[in-house]
C-alpha cells in the first residue's frame, strides 16, 4: 500500500521555516548590495590600464569562478581563523556570498563596459569630467542596461547558493528544513515545501529586481 503524504504534520514547524526564510532574505539583500558594489569597482579596475592591481583582481576573479562555492565558504570558515581572522557563521556566510558574487559580477559588468563606444569617454573629457565622473555618469549606466538581465540571474544563483551555508550551521532556510526533517522524518514533504519556497523566492526576487531596473536604469524587457 502506498504511503500517504502528511503535510499537516509540518504545520507546527512553520515558525522555524519563516525564521530561516527571513535569514535567507537578509543574506541575499546584503550579499547582493555588497557583491554588486564589488563588481562595479572590479569592472572599473579591470577596464582601465593594466596594472599590478588589475592583475591581482583578475587572479581573484579566476580563482572564484573556477572553484566551488562550498570550498570558498569552508576556506573562509575554517581557513581564515588560522590567520587570526575569526568570524561568526553568519559573517563568514555573508563574506563568502559577497566574494562569489563580486567576482562574477565583475566580469558581467566589464563585458557591458567593453562594448561602450569610446566616444562616450571622449565626450566626458570634453565636458570637463574626470575619468571617475565619466565612468559613473556616462559609461556605467548604459553598460548596466545592457547586462542587467544577466546580472539579475547571477544574483538569483547566489541566493540559491546560500543554501550551502547550512553546512556551517548557519540557520537559514535549508538549515531549518534539515532540522525539521530530522525531527519528523517527512523527507518528501519537507523538501517539496522548501522547493516551492525557493521557487517562489527566486521568481519574486527576479520580478522585483527587473522592476527596479526598469525604474532606475531604464532597462527594456
From TrEMBL:
<keyword id="KW-1003">Cell membrane</keyword>
<feature type="transmembrane region" description="Helical">
    <location>
        <begin position="57"/>
        <end position="80"/>
    </location>
</feature>
<dbReference type="InterPro" id="IPR000515">
    <property type="entry name" value="MetI-like"/>
</dbReference>
<dbReference type="InterPro" id="IPR035906">
    <property type="entry name" value="MetI-like_sf"/>
</dbReference>
<keyword id="KW-0812">Transmembrane</keyword>
<dbReference type="InterPro" id="IPR010065">
    <property type="entry name" value="AA_ABC_transptr_permease_3TM"/>
</dbReference>
<keyword id="KW-0029">Amino-acid transport</keyword>
<protein>
    <submittedName>
        <fullName>Amino acid ABC transporter permease</fullName>
    </submittedName>
</protein>
<keyword id="KW-0997">Cell inner membrane</keyword>
<dbReference type="Pfam" id="PF00528">
    <property type="entry name" value="BPD_transp_1"/>
</dbReference>
<keyword id="KW-1133">Transmembrane helix</keyword>
<keyword id="KW-0472">Membrane</keyword>
<dbReference type="InterPro" id="IPR043429">
    <property type="entry name" value="ArtM/GltK/GlnP/TcyL/YhdX-like"/>
</dbReference>
<keyword id="KW-0813">Transport</keyword>
<feature type="transmembrane region" description="Helical">
    <location>
        <begin position="20"/>
        <end position="45"/>
    </location>
</feature>
<comment type="similarity">
    <text>Belongs to the binding-protein-dependent transport system permease family. HisMQ subfamily.</text>
</comment>
<feature type="transmembrane region" description="Helical">
    <location>
        <begin position="185"/>
        <end position="205"/>
    </location>
</feature>
<feature type="domain" description="ABC transmembrane type-1">
    <location>
        <begin position="21"/>
        <end position="209"/>
    </location>
</feature>
